[in-house]
Design goal:
The chain has 435 residues and is α/β, with parallel strands linked by helices. It has a domain at 183-220 and 302-427: Peroxisomal Thiolase, Chain A, domain 1 (3-Layer(aba) Sandwich), CATH 3.40.47.10. The chain is built from 15 helices and ten strands. It has helices spanning 36-51, 75-82, 100-114, 137-146, 152-159, 164-167, 183-193, 198-217, 249-252, 286-291, 317-329, 346-356, 359-366, 386-389, 396-410; strands at residues 14-21, 25-26, 60-64, 90-94, 119-126, 275-285, 298-307, 338-341, 414-422, 426-434. The relative contact order is 0.20.
Length: 435
C-alpha cells in the first residue's frame, strides 16, 4: 500500500463522471478565428448539457490556458460567466505547460478531498491560431513615451528613433525562457543522447496515426468529442483533422529534419502539430455522484508531478513522475492495464520508454534499486496519442483522462497510467481506476 490515498476524510473516492472535448484542429484551420476562451466555454457548456447536471451544483472551475491572452487572463472565470453557471461559482486558472489540465484536475480533486466542494470542473483550452502578437521592446517603450508628450515636435523626435525592424510584430516565443532552446531542439538532443533513430521515430508516428484512425473508424472516440460550430458559423467540425487516415511508414521518410537540418531526425511528421482545442472533465465526491444517479467513468487513484533540469533531457518528466506516482500508490508497472504517454515528439516518447526499462537510470536518477519496468507495447498508447490527435497544450491532459477511462471501461476495468512531459523540465503522472 502506498502513502497516497485520494479520498475524502470520510473515505469517499473522487469520481470522474463526465469528460468531453472539442475536435482538435490543426493551426489555422477550422478554429482559426476561435480564441481559447471560446473553445473552453464551448466544451464546458456542451458537457453540462450532456450530463444534465444543474449548473448551480458546480462549486468550482479550475481551467488552464498555456498561450495566455492578455484580455482574458482568467479563462476559468470567463467560462463560468459564459456558460450559465451560478455567478458565485469559484473559478481560477492554472498553467503547467503541456500538463496543465492534469494540474487543474488535481486541484479540483484536492478541493473535494478537503471537503470544501462536492462538484467541480477541470480542463484546459488553447489556440495556436488566435495568438497574442506583441510589439518590440523599443516600440513598446516609445509608445509609452508618446503618451506623455505634449507637442508635435516631441512626438516626431521619438518616432524618428524607430527603425522598420522595431515596427515588426513579435509572435509568442517558442523557446524556453531560461535556455533559449526550443522543445524540438531538446527532442533532437534526447534522440542523439539515447540513440533514438529516425526510423524508430517515424514508426511510432505511423503507429499513432494508424491506431487513432482505427479508433475513430470503430466509433470509440466520437462520444467523447462534441460537434463544434465555430464562428463565423458556416462550417462544422465533428472529428480531429490532423489524423492521417492513409498513413504509411514510407510517407514519413520523405520529410526533412526540422531542427537540425544536417544531422537531425525530428521532423514535422514525427512530432505533434500546433493545434487548437479544448477539453474538460467533471469531478465529484463519490457519494454525490450516487445521490445524483450519475454513471461514474472512473476514479482518480493517485498522481504525482516532477521537475528536472532544463539543459538536457528536459522532456524526461514522464519517467520521473511515473516513478513517484507508483511509489505513492504502492503499485508496479505490471499492475497497469493501460498506459498513455503524451507524444510531444516521438523521440521524447521513445527516450522515456527506454529509461523506464533502465536499471542504471533508475539507480542514478530515480532513487530506485531497479528500473520502473519494461513497457508492454500492447498496453501502450493503444488508441494513438498526441502525434495523431494533436496537442492544444492545456487540453491534452483532460483528453487523455477521458479517453483512457472510456477504454478501461470497454476492457472491463482496471488501472491505467496517464503521463506527460511539459516545458520547464516538468512532468505529470496520474493513475486512473475503473471498476
Amino acid at each position: 500500500m502506498g502513502k497516497q490515498e485520494v479520498k475524502t476524510r470520510s473515505g469517499e473516492r473522487v469520481a470522474v463522471v463526465a469528460g468531453l472535448r472539442t475536435p482538435f484542429a490543426r493551426q489555422s484551420t477550422e478554429f482559426s478565428q476561435v480564441p481559447a476562451v471560446d473553445l473552453g466555454k464551448m466544451v464546458v457548456s456542451e458537457m453540462l448539457a450532456r450530463t444534465d447536471v444543474d449548473p448551480a451544483l458546480i462549486e468550482q472551475v479550475v481551467f488552464g490556458q498555456v498561450v495566455q491572452m492578455p484580455e482574458a487572463p482568467n479563462i476559468a472565470r470567463e467560462i463560468v460567466l459564459g456558460t450559465g453557471m451560478d455567478i458565485n461559482t469559484d473559478a481560477y486558472s492554472v498553467t503547467r505547460a503541456c500538463a496543465t489540465s492534469f494540474q487543474a484536475a488535481v486541484n479540483v480533486t484536492e478541493s473535494i478531498m478537503a471537503g470544501t466542494i462536492d462538484v467541480g470542473i477541470a480542463g484546459g483550452a488553447d489556440s495556436s491560431s488566435v495568438l497574442p502578437i506583441g510589439v518590440s521592446k523599443k516600440l513598446a517603450a516609445n509608445l509609452l513615451a508618446l503618451s506623455k508628450t505634449k507637442t508635435m515636435g516631441q512626438k516626431q523626435k521619438i518616432l524618428k528613433t524607430l527603425s522598420v525592424k522595431d515596427l515588426m510584430p513579435v509572435p509568442p516565443a517558442v523557446a524556453e525562457y531560461s535556455t533559449g532552446l526550443s522543445m524540438g531542439q531538446t527532442a533532437e538532443q534526447m534522440a542523439k543522447t539515447h540513440g533514438i533513430t529516425r526510423e524508430a521515430q517515424d514508426a511510432l508516428a505511423h503507429r499513432s496515426h494508424s491506431l487513432a484512425s482505427q479508433a475513430w473508424k470503430e466509433g470509440k472516440i466520437k462520444d467523447e468529442v462534441m460537434t463544434a460550430f465555430p464562428a463565423p458559423y458556416k462550417k462544422y467540425l465533428a472529428e480531429d483533422n490532423n489524423i492521417r487516415h492513409d498513413s504509411t511508414v514510407e510517407g514519413y521518410a520523405k520529410l526533412r529534419p526540422a531542427f537540425d537540418r544536417k544531422y537531425g531526425s525530428v521532423t514535422a511528421a514525427n512530432a505533434t502539430p500546433l493545434t487548437d482545442g479544448g477539453a474538460a472533465v467533471m469531478l465529484m465526491r463519490e457519494g454525490k455522484a450516487k445521490e445524483l444517479g450519475l454513471e461514474v467513468l472512473g476514479y482518480i487513484r493517485g498522481y504525482a508531478f516532477s521537475a528536472i533540469g532544463v539543459e538536457t533531457d528536459m522532456l524526461m518528466g514522464p519517467t520521473y513522475a511515473t516513478s513517484q506516482v507508483l511509489k505513492n500508490t504502492g503499485l508496479e508497472l505490471s499492475d497497469l492495464t493501460l498506459i498513455e504517454m503524451h507524444e510531444a515528439f516521438a523521440a521524447q516518447v521513445l527516450a522515456n520508454v527506454k529509461m523506464f526499462a533502465s536499471d542504471e537510470f533508475a539507480q542514478k536518477n530515480l532513487g530506485r534499486d531497479k528500473a520502473i519496468g519494461e513497457i508492454d507495447m500492447d498496453k501502450f498508447n493503444v488508441l494513438g496519442s498526441s502525434i495523431a490527435y494533436g496537442h492544444p497544450f492545456a487540453a491534452t491532459g483532460a483528453r487523455m483522462m477521458t479517453q483512457t477511462l472510456r477504454e478501461l471501461k470497454r476492457r472491463g476495468g482496471g488501472l491505467a497510467l496517464n503521463t506527460a512531459c511539459a516545458a520547464g523540465g516538468l512532468g505529470a503522472a496520474m493513475i486512473l481506476e475503473v471498476e
